[in-house]
Specification:
This protein is mainly beta. Helix content is about 15%, strand content about 45%.
Length: about 150
Protein backbone atom coordinates (compact mmCIF):
# COMPACT_ATOMS: atom_id res chain seq x y z
CA UNK A 1 0.00 0.00 0.00
CA UNK A 2 2.86 2.41 0.85
CA UNK A 3 4.47 1.66 -2.49
CA UNK A 4 1.24 2.48 -4.32
CA UNK A 5 0.92 5.82 -2.45
CA UNK A 6 4.51 6.71 -3.33
CA UNK A 7 3.89 5.94 -7.00
CA UNK A 8 0.69 8.01 -7.02
CA UNK A 9 2.46 10.94 -5.33
CA UNK A 10 5.27 10.78 -7.90
CA UNK A 11 2.78 10.72 -10.78
CA UNK A 12 0.91 13.71 -9.31
CA UNK A 13 4.14 15.74 -9.13
CA UNK A 14 5.08 14.79 -12.69
CA UNK A 15 1.61 15.65 -14.02
CA UNK A 16 1.69 19.04 -12.29
CA UNK A 17 5.14 19.83 -13.68
CA UNK A 18 4.40 18.66 -17.21
CA UNK A 19 1.23 20.74 -17.45
CA UNK A 20 3.10 23.89 -16.53
CA UNK A 21 1.32 24.18 -13.21
CA UNK A 22 2.73 25.27 -9.90
CA UNK A 23 5.37 23.11 -8.36
CA UNK A 24 6.32 23.07 -4.70
CA UNK A 25 9.87 24.40 -4.98
CA UNK A 26 11.74 26.86 -7.20
CA UNK A 27 12.98 24.73 -10.06
CA UNK A 28 14.63 25.73 -13.32
CA UNK A 29 14.83 22.70 -15.60
CA UNK A 30 18.23 23.51 -17.12
CA UNK A 31 19.05 20.71 -19.53
CA UNK A 32 22.23 21.92 -21.24
CA UNK A 33 24.70 24.79 -21.37
CA UNK A 34 27.84 25.31 -23.37
CA UNK A 35 30.22 27.91 -24.63
CA UNK A 36 30.68 27.68 -28.39
CA UNK A 37 32.10 29.55 -31.36
CA UNK A 38 28.76 29.90 -33.14
CA UNK A 39 25.16 28.65 -33.40
CA UNK A 40 23.39 27.16 -36.40
CA UNK A 41 20.04 28.11 -37.97
CA UNK A 42 18.21 25.94 -35.39
CA UNK A 43 20.00 27.67 -32.52
CA UNK A 44 22.24 24.70 -31.71
CA UNK A 45 25.87 25.31 -30.70
CA UNK A 46 28.62 24.80 -33.26
CA UNK A 47 32.10 23.84 -32.02
CA UNK A 48 31.62 23.71 -28.26
CA UNK A 49 34.68 24.98 -26.41
CA UNK A 50 35.75 26.96 -23.36
CA UNK A 51 38.92 28.30 -25.00
CA UNK A 52 38.84 31.00 -27.68
CA UNK A 53 41.54 32.55 -29.83
CA UNK A 54 41.89 36.30 -30.33
CA UNK A 55 41.14 35.48 -34.00
CA UNK A 56 37.76 33.85 -33.24
CA UNK A 57 34.79 35.95 -34.31
CA UNK A 58 32.87 35.55 -31.06
CA UNK A 59 32.34 33.66 -27.81
CA UNK A 60 28.79 32.29 -27.51
CA UNK A 61 27.04 31.33 -24.29
CA UNK A 62 24.26 28.89 -25.27
CA UNK A 63 21.61 27.47 -22.95
CA UNK A 64 18.65 25.09 -23.23
CA UNK A 65 15.90 24.31 -20.74
CA UNK A 66 12.36 22.93 -20.71
CA UNK A 67 9.74 25.55 -21.54
CA UNK A 68 6.61 26.23 -19.56
CA UNK A 69 3.50 28.35 -20.10
CA UNK A 70 5.04 31.77 -19.58
CA UNK A 71 7.79 33.80 -21.25
CA UNK A 72 11.12 34.19 -19.45
CA UNK A 73 13.52 37.12 -19.46
CA UNK A 74 17.16 36.14 -19.86
CA UNK A 75 20.24 38.20 -19.06
CA UNK A 76 23.95 37.55 -19.56
CA UNK A 77 26.59 39.51 -17.66
CA UNK A 78 30.02 39.18 -19.25
CA UNK A 79 33.03 39.90 -17.00
CA UNK A 80 36.54 40.59 -18.31
CA UNK A 81 39.62 38.97 -16.72
CA UNK A 82 40.06 42.03 -14.45
CA UNK A 83 36.62 41.31 -12.93
CA UNK A 84 34.93 44.37 -14.42
CA UNK A 85 31.57 44.10 -16.15
CA UNK A 86 32.28 44.09 -19.90
CA UNK A 87 28.79 43.72 -21.37
CA UNK A 88 25.17 42.88 -20.59
CA UNK A 89 22.81 41.27 -23.09
CA UNK A 90 19.13 40.37 -22.87
CA UNK A 91 16.65 38.01 -24.54
CA UNK A 92 13.11 36.71 -24.03
CA UNK A 93 12.27 33.02 -24.31
CA UNK A 94 8.63 32.68 -25.41
CA UNK A 95 6.21 30.25 -23.73
CA UNK A 96 6.00 26.73 -25.13
CA UNK A 97 3.93 26.29 -28.25
CA UNK A 98 1.70 23.22 -28.01
CA UNK A 99 0.86 23.32 -31.73
CA UNK A 100 4.49 23.21 -32.89
CA UNK A 101 5.65 20.69 -30.31
CA UNK A 102 8.60 22.97 -29.49
CA UNK A 103 9.15 22.08 -25.84
CA UNK A 104 12.75 23.27 -25.49
CA UNK A 105 13.74 26.84 -24.82
CA UNK A 106 17.07 27.53 -26.54
CA UNK A 107 18.68 30.91 -26.36
CA UNK A 108 22.14 32.39 -26.58
CA UNK A 109 24.25 35.49 -26.25
CA UNK A 110 27.67 36.37 -27.62
CA UNK A 111 30.48 38.85 -27.33
CA UNK A 112 32.54 39.78 -30.38
CA UNK A 113 36.25 38.97 -30.10
CA UNK A 114 38.21 39.56 -33.33
CA UNK A 115 38.96 43.25 -33.86
CA UNK A 116 37.21 44.23 -30.62
CA UNK A 117 38.30 45.14 -27.10
CA UNK A 118 37.77 41.51 -25.98
CA UNK A 119 40.73 40.39 -28.13
CA UNK A 120 43.01 42.69 -26.11
CA UNK A 121 41.66 41.51 -22.74
CA UNK A 122 43.22 38.06 -22.73
CA UNK A 123 42.75 35.65 -19.86
CA UNK A 124 39.95 33.96 -17.94
CA UNK A 125 36.54 35.53 -18.48
CA UNK A 126 33.26 34.84 -16.66
CA UNK A 127 29.64 34.98 -17.77
CA UNK A 128 26.72 34.94 -15.33
CA UNK A 129 23.38 33.80 -16.75
CA UNK A 130 20.08 34.93 -15.24
CA UNK A 131 16.52 33.78 -15.91
CA UNK A 132 13.78 36.04 -14.60
CA UNK A 133 16.42 37.94 -12.59
CA UNK A 134 17.64 34.82 -10.77
CA UNK A 135 21.20 33.62 -11.44
CA UNK A 136 21.11 30.09 -12.83
CA UNK A 137 24.66 29.55 -14.09
CA UNK A 138 28.19 30.96 -13.92
CA UNK A 139 30.69 29.84 -16.54
CA UNK A 140 34.41 30.56 -16.93
CA UNK A 141 36.09 30.58 -20.32
CA UNK A 142 39.36 31.76 -21.79
CA UNK A 143 40.31 34.16 -24.57
CA UNK A 144 43.84 33.95 -25.95
CA UNK A 145 45.54 32.07 -23.18
CA UNK A 146 45.69 28.77 -21.37
CA UNK A 147 42.87 26.23 -21.54
CA UNK A 148 40.09 26.63 -18.98
CA UNK A 149 38.62 23.33 -17.72
CA UNK A 150 34.84 22.91 -17.72
Amino acid sequence: MKKMKAILAFLAVMATASLGGAIWFPFIPLSDHSMAKSVDAHWNPIYRTYSFSTEDDQAVSWIRFARDLKPHEMEWRWYAPNGQLYARTFAVVPPKNFASGDWEGKTWSAIQIRGCEASRLQGTWRVDIFRDWMKIKTVSFNIGGQYVPC
